[in-house]
Design brief:
The chain has two domains: 24-161, Peroxidase, domain 1 (Orthogonal Bundle); 168-304, Orthogonal Bundle (Peroxidase, domain 2). The protein is 46% helix and 2% strand. The protein is built from 13 helices and two strands. The protein has helices spanning 3-21, 37-51, 55-67, 100-113, 120-134, 154-160, 168-177, 182-189, 221-230, 254-260, 267-274, 280-289, 291-306; strands at 196-198, 240-242. It has a two-stranded antiparallel sheet with strand order 1-2. Helix 2 packs across helix 5, helix 10 (254-260) packs across helix 12 and helix 12 crosses helix 13. The longest helix has 19 residues, at 3-21. The chain is globular and about 70 Å long. The structure holds protoporphyrin IX containing FE (HEM) and 2-acetamido-2-deoxy-beta-D-glucopyranose (NAG) (10 copies). Residues 208, 211, 213 line the site of one 2-acetamido-2-deoxy-beta-D-glucopyranose. Ca(2+) 2 binds at residues 193, 244, 247, 252. Disulfide bonds join 34-114, 67-72, 120-322, 199-231. Its cofactor is heme b; Ca(2+). It is an enzyme of class 1 (oxidoreductase).
Length: 328
C-alpha cells in the first residue's frame, strides 16, 4: 500500500470513529422503521393507568434511575442472571421501583408492530413523556436512538442515585456528576408532583429528627399530624403516602407551592426551599408562581437527563426482551 493510500485509509477510519462517538439522539430516529412508536407506547400506558393511576409516576422514575447509572441504556431493566447482578436489587430500587410489567407490555406491543427495532432504553424515555402528558403535564419531542446495555451496574445504582436522606450539597453533587445543574435538579424534582412514597423514606422526620427528640421543625404542623397518622411509630414501613398531598395524580406545579407551605414529603424535597441561602430557593419560587415556566424547564431538563451517555450507533444492542440480554 502506498503511504498516500495508508493516510487516506486512516482518515476514513478516523472519520468513522468520530461519527460514531458523536452520534446524537434525534426525534425522528424511528420515523421510517417504526413510525407509530409514540402512539403505541401511549396506548399501552393509557390502559395501565386505568388499572392503577400510579403507573405513570412509576414509569418516569424508572427512566431517572436508568439514566443516573451508566447512562440511559436500559440497564435497570435487566433481571439477575449468570452475568448480571440486577440493579433492581440495589438499595434505591429494591422493593421500591415498579412498572416493569408495563414496560414489558409496551415491548410486546412494539415487537408486534416493528420487531427488533425499538430499544428498551428508548421505551423508558418515551414512557416518561407519555406519563407526564397523560397526567396533565407538558409534552415534548423525545430524542431517540439509544441502544440497550449488555451489562448492569448494581454498585453504581447503590452510589449514584440520590437518597432522600442526603443534604442538598450531596444531591447537587450527584446531579452534577451526570452533567445536570441546579435548574435541572429543581425542575426534575417537580416530578414528585405525582406518585407515592413509603413511610420508611420520610418517617425519620416525624418523631425524632436527627436525634433531637422532636419532629423536623420545617414540617407544617397539620401536615405532620396527618403523616403521623399514616405512619405511626412501629407501624409498617411500607405504607404509602402521596408525594403531592394536594393533587396526587396530576402533573402540575403544586409540588412547589407545597414546599412553600412546608409540605414537602421527603427531606430532599423540602431542602430545595428550606436550605438557607441555597441557589434552589428562587427557582422553586419561580416554578410555584409560574406553571408555564416549570413546564418549559421540566421538558428541557427531561431532554438533558435523557441525553446522559446513551449507547448509539453499533454499541450495545436492541434487546428483544427488556429483562434479558439477547441470547443470554
Ligand atoms: C432529587 C433527588 C431525588 C430523590 C432523593 C428522590 C427520592 C425518591 C423516593 C425516596 C421516592 C419514594 C420511593 C419509595 O418509597 O418506594 C421517590 C419516588 C418518586 N420519584 Fe423521586 N427522587 C429524586 C428525584 C426524582 C426525579 C429526578 C424524578 C423524575 C424525573 C423522580 C420521580 C419520582 C416519582 C414519579 C416517584 C413516585 C414513584 C411511584 O409512585 O412509583 N424523582 N423518589
Ligand atoms: C437521527 O440519527 C440517526 C442515527 O444517528 C441518523 O441516521 C439520522 O439521519 C438522524 N436523523 C436526523 C434527522 O438527523
Ligand atoms: C398508531 O397507533 C394508534 C394507537 O395504537 C392507532 O390508533 C393508529 O391507527 C395507528 N396508526 C398507524 C398508522 O398504524
Ligand atoms: C424487600 O421485601 C422483602 C419482602 O417483604 C424482604 O424480604 C426484603 O428483605 C426486602 N428487601 C429490601 C432490600 O428491603
Ligand atoms: C447494593 O446495595 C444492596 C442493598 O443495600 C446490597 O445488598 C448489595 O450488596 C449492594 N451491591 C453492591 C454491588 O454493592
Ligand atoms: C452534607 O452532608 C455531608 C455528608 O454527610 C457533610 O459532610 C456536609 O457537611 C453536609 N453539608 C451541609 C451543608 O449540611
Ligand atoms: C432520639 O434519638 C436519640 C439518638 O438516637 C436518642 O438518644 C433519644 O433518646 C431519642 N429521643 C426520643 C424521645 O426517643
Ligand atoms: C414502639 O416499640 C418500642 C419497642 O418495641 C416500644 O418501646 C414503644 O413504646 C413503641 N412505641 C409506640 C408509640 O407504640
Ligand atoms: C401549613 O399548610 C397549610 C395548608 O394546608 C397552609 O395554609 C399553612 O400556611 C401552612 N403553614 C406553614 C407554616 O407553612
Ligand atoms: C412565566 O414563564 C414563562 C416562560 O418562562 C414566561 O414567558 C412568562 O413571561 C412568565 N410569566 C410571568 C407572569 O412571569
Ligand atoms: C423563571 O423560569 C423561566 C424558565 O426557566 C425563566 O425563563 C425565567 O427567567 C425565570 N424567571 C425568574 C424571575 O427567575
Amino acid at each position: 500500500m502506498s503511504s498516500q493510500l495508508r493516510v487516506a485509509a486512516l482518515l476514513v477510519v478516523l472519520l468513522f470513529l468520530l461519527e460514531r462517538s458523536s452520534a446524537q439522539l434525534n426525534a425522528t430516529f424511528y420515523s421510517i422503521s417504526c413510525p407509530n412508536v409514540s402512539s403505541i407506547v401511549r396506548g399501552v400506558i393509557q390502559q395501565a393507568l386505568q388499572s392503577d393511576a400510579r403507573n405513570g409516576a412509576s414509569l418516569i422514575r424508572l427512566h431517572f434511575h436508568d439514566c443516573f447509572v451508566n447512562g440511559c441504556d436500559g440497564s435497570i431493566l435487566l433481571d439477575n442472571s449468570g452475568s448480571i447482578q440486577s440493579e433492581k436489587d440495589a438499595a434505591p430500587n429494591a422493593n421500591s421501583t415498579r412498572g416493569f410489567d408495563v414496560v414489558d407490555d409496551i415491548k410486546t406491543a412494539l415487537e408486534n408492530s416493528c420487531p427488533g427495532v425499538v430499544s428498551c432504553a428508548d421505551i423508558l424515555a418515551l414512557a416518561a413523556e407519555a406519563s407526564v402528558s397523560l397526567a396533565g403535564g407538558p409534552s415534548w419531542n423525545v430524542l431517540l436512538g439509544r441502544r440497550d446495555s449488555t451489562t448492569a451496574n448494581q454498585a453504581g445504582a447503590n452510589t449514584s442515585i440520590p437518597s432522600p436522606f442526603e443534604n442538598l450539597t450531596e444531591i447537587t453533587a450527584k446531579f452534577s456528576a451526570v452533567g445536570l445543574d441546579t435548574t435541572d435538579l429543581v425542575a426534575l424534582s417537580g416530578a414528585h408532583t405525582f406518585g407515592r412514597a413509603q413511610c420508611r423514606t420520610f418517617s425519620s422526620r416525624l418523631y425524632n429528627f436527627s436525634g433531637s427528640g422532636n419532629p423536623d421543625p420545617t414540617l407544617n404542623s397539620s401536615y405532620l399530624a396527618t403523616l403521623q397518622q399514616t405512619c405511626p411509630q412501629n407501624g409498617s414501613s411500607t405504607t404509602l403516602a402521596n408525594l403531592d398531598p394536594t393533587t396526587p395524580d396530576t402533573f402540575d406545579n403544586n409540588y412547589f407551592s407545597n414546599l412553600e407551605n412546608n409540605q414537602g414529603l421527603l427531606l430532599s424535597d423540602q431542602e430545595l426551599l428550606s436550605t438557607s441561602g441555597a441557589a434552589t430557593i428562587s427557582i422553586v419560587n419561580n416554578f410555584s408562581a409560574n406553571q408555564t415556566a416549570f413546564f418549559q424547564s421540566f421538558a428541557q431538563s427531561m431532554i438533558n437527563m435523557g441525553n446522559i451517555s446513551p449507547l448509539t450507533g453499533s454499541s450495545g444492542q436492541i434487546r428483544s426482551d427488556c429483562k434479558k440480554v439477547n441470547g443470554g
